[in-house]
TrEMBL record, chain A:
Any Gene Ontology biological process: defense response
Top-level taxonomic group: Eukaryota
C2 domain segment(s): 1-110
Name of the featured protein: BON1-associated protein 2-like
From TrEMBL, chain B:
Domain VWFA, first and last residues per copy: 336-555
Protein name: Protein BONZAI 1-like
A GO term for molecular function: metal ion binding
Keywords, alphabetical: Calcium, Cell membrane, Lipoprotein, Membrane, Metal-binding, Plant defense, Repeat
Organism: Populus euphratica
């Protein structure tokens, strides 16, 4: 909280779903993989280890992270428990911009997949997650979507023109935002 | 519609019974032609206020159903029983039909009054010319299944004078009701693995995949499902596969599970096979046991099965009833059609007959018009207001710079047109109002379609969008297009790309994840699902598979992959 009592972070829910084609030392991973999601050095969460999925593990585990407003991405690490200790199989970055899409509702559930890279930068499988911004229960206007815009193309390509003539609207969005929600 | 498909090119090619090579498209067509991907619908019929053709009693109606071919010919598919003395009959006879999303299935119904003298004759033996005609009605199956109640009221029409084209008279109503058969909804999820597979490759381990086929009484087993290819793995664990009861007939039906070593030539080596029903596979899972693979061998004239030490295990077996494509439609979901047309100069001067945009005075449609019409005619039934966004790209509108997304109707403000005919009209007028230019950029139209699709979740998430892009050339902004597609893969959107003309579209196939790996953006984000279908128009022009069917076949699966993920994900917290 800052001096005015405003929250200096947003709450992000990341559900770690699964990964595909994981390899360790050029061999398919057999078991004991887990994922750590890190929003900042002091703010991270980890899943339980998967014992059955082998190189295609699934976790389906929700991690809730407090994300400082100045932080631009969440780091995802897939780690394998081995006899010689924990080894990082691959890492990926989840940019916050992928969750805060321009035109979807604030708390929209996004399904996202990212390429995992090993310590040498080589491709090592894919991680699948879902993520959403957790809305404060006491927000003034929790159901407000971001300001919707028209979707007609003007004759030369640019961001679609603002406003759609009445009668030509397919009701792709409802209403107009008249204020900015205030978080208490 | 729940078949598993591999993510890798090898897996897509990995089909072929008993080592024979077979392309994936051939198998897909084979399955589709037998209704393997459709849902079984049971149609029931009733009527109200029929004409009374009997003097001393009421009519004794029978209903006869036909399917209408593309050429207009009728093929009889069912006859109901005769209901005695009723002008408001409810027939007991049901008609089971496979709903094929990708086809326009026109049904025609004729109602007749059966005279008393024919009441003891089997309905199949009745001669129609001896019956009294009560009226006819027709509909498209899609019209029935898109109704929330899955019931459609049709006016029965009767022509007073058969020699005249007009003079149609209303003579009652026919009510058609559709129910989806339960077998379409029951799905098995299985995780299969093998142990100790034999070496088939000279310098490396085998690259195994499984092919599951339904054993039928006559003829070769029918392939119903396949796994992905796992490289260099003697103890492979494949991704979950999904089989609906409808695919296999019943849980007791024997299935042939064949394990092949993948070869890029298409001649895959049979490693071994197992013959088991779903009931037996479930037992293997619950007992935690494996089943030894066998290899058919021939010693002289004797056919023997050589038992191998390799084993098949069922690591997971679960049965669930999932909401189907038709359930979502009944719940009010819609498919909204959008189209984008390539106006780049490589199409040729529209005033010359060799141009892909040539408007033939005889009325013969060009490739662009045919693609719009064929796709639109299927999709229009799933859009309630039938107003379609339509764009052009790669042209210079009058007094303006080259635009890579302009409204086909010429408006600066709105992009929608009324109906499929509205698209055709807007396309024709655009040809007279823009000058063809270039290059071929997809990014802007995909971003614009994604923008519209992104509004759907804010409105209850009942709309799913389908963008048809028709193009004559390879895309110039390949990476930007990939980025736009990857970003859009999280939205209720599918993209159909039709390639027209003689260009080499090899590069375009990269965009279709069926034919390669999942798309990856420049930032390392990967498409969360496959949303692109690409098809060169010439592939299907002369073949028996209509362009529409080849293009649209995967749409229900793509729709379900989006909708189910929003419905069903219940994480373990």
């Amino acid at each position: 909280m800052d001096k005015q009592g405003h929250k200096a972070s947003r709450t992000i829910e990341v559900t770690v779903l699964s990964a595909e084609n994981l390899r360790l030392d050029r061999k398919s991973v057999k078991k004991n993989t887990y994922v750590t999601a890190r929003a900042s050095p002091l703010n991270s969460g980890s899943t339980k280890a998967d014992f059955e999925g082998g190189s295609n593990p699934s976790w389906n585990e929700k991690l809730t992270l407090e994300m400082p407003f100045q932080t631009s991405f969440i780091s995802l690490e897939v780690i394998c428990k081995t006899n010689s200790g924990d080894r990082v199989i691959g890492t990926a970055s989840l940019p916050i911009s992928d969750i805060l899409e321009d035109y979807t509702p604030e708390n929209h559930l996004h399904f996202l997949s990212y390429r995992l890279r090993d310590s040498k930068g080589g491709r090592n499988g894919v991680i699948n997650v879902s993520a959403r911004v957790k809305m404060p229960v006491d927000s003034v206007c929790p159901s407000v979507t971001k300001n919707p815009i028209g979707y007609g193309c003007s004759s030369s390509w640019q961001q679609p023109a603002l406003g759609v003539p009445v009668g030509h609207q397919k009701n792709y969005y409802s209403g107009v935002v008249t204020g900015v929600p205030v978080w208490s | 519609m729940g078949n598993c498909c591999s993510d890798v090119a090898g897996g897509r090619a990995a089909v072929g019974g008993s080592g024979a090579a077979a392309g994936n498209d051939a198998v897909d067509h084979f399955l589709k032609s037998r209704g393997m991907y459709g849902s079984q619908m049971e149609l029931s019929f009733s009527a109200t206020n029929l004409r009374d053709r009997d003097v001393l009693s009421k009519s004794d109606p029978i209903l006869i159903g036909y399917t209408k071919g593309k050429d207009g010919t009728l093929a009889e598919v069912f006859r109901t029983e005769v209901i005695l003395n009723s002008l408001n009959p409810t027939w007991i006879t049901k008609h089971v039909i496979t709903f094929q999303f990708e086809a326009v299935q026109t049904l025609v119904f004729h109602a007749y009054d059966v005279d008393t003298q024919f009441h003891n004759i089997d309905v199949k033996m009745l001669k129609l010319e001896e019956l009294q005609f009560l009226g006819e009605a027709s509909c498209v199956l899609s019209e029935v299944v898109t109704r929330p109640s899955r019931s459609l009221n049709l006016d029965l029409l009767f022509r007073e004078d058969p020699t005249m084209s007009g003079n149609l008279r209303h003579c009652g109503q026919l009510i058609v009701h559709a129910e989806e058969c339960i077998s379409s909804k029951t799905t098995m999820e299985m995780v299969l693995r093998c142990s100790d597979l034999e070496h088939k490759d000279l310098f490396s381990k085998s690259d195994p995949f499984l092919l599951i086929s339904k054993i039928v009484e006559v003829g070769l087993p029918i392939p119903v499902c396949k796994t992905e290819v796992l490289k260099n793995d003697h103890n492979p664990v494949w991704k979950p596969i999904y089989l609906s009861i409808q695919h296999v007939g019943s849980k007791e039906n024997p299935l042939m599970i064949e394990c092949f070593n993948f070869n890029s030539s298409g001649k895959h080596d049979l490693i071994g096979k197992v013959k088991k029903s779903l009931v037996e596979l479930e037992k293997l899972h619950s007992n935690g046991e494996g089943e030894n693979l066998f290899l058919p061998t021939t010693v002289g004239h004797n056919h023997q099965n050589k038992l191998l030490k390799s084993q098949l295990f069922v690591d997971k077996f679960s049965q669930s009833s999932q909401r189907t494509f038709l359930d979502y439609l009944a719940g009010g979901c819609e498919l909204n059609f959008m189209v984008a047309v390539d106006f780049t100069a490589s199409n040729g001067n529209p005033r010359l007959p060799d141009s892909l945009h040539y408007l033939d005075p005889s009325g013969r449609l060009n490739a662009y018009q045919r693609a719009i019409l064929e796709v639109g005619e299927v999709l229009k039934f799933y859009d309630s207001d039938k107003r379609f966004p339509a764009w052009g790209f790669g042209a210079r509108p009058i007094d303006g710079p080259v635009s890579h997304c302009f409204n086909l109707n010429g408006s600066n403000n709105h992009c929608e047109v009324d109906g499929i005919q509205g698209i055709m009209t807007a396309y024709t007028s655009a040809l007279y109002n823009v000058s063809l230019a270039g290059p071929t950029l997809f990014g802007p139209v995909i971003s614009n379609a994604a923008l519209i699709a992104s509004q759907s979740p804010a409105n209850g998430g009942k709309k799913y969008f389908v963008l048809l892009i028709i193009t004559d050339g390879v895309v110039t902004d390949l990476q930007e297009t990939k980025d736009a597609i990857v970003k859009a893969s999280d939205l209720p959107l599918s993209i159909l790309i039709v390639g027209v003309g003689g260009a080499d579209f090899k590069e375009m196939e990269i965009l279709d994840a069926d034919k390669g790996e999942r798309l990856e953006s420049s930032s390392g984000r990967v498409a969360s699902r496959d949303i692109v279908q690409f098809l060169p128009f010439r592939d299907v022009q002369s073949g028996e598979i209509a362009v529409v069917q080849a293009l649209l076949a995967e749409l229900p699966t793509q729709f379900l992959s989006y909708m189910r993920s929003r419905d069903d994900i219940q994480p373990n917290i």
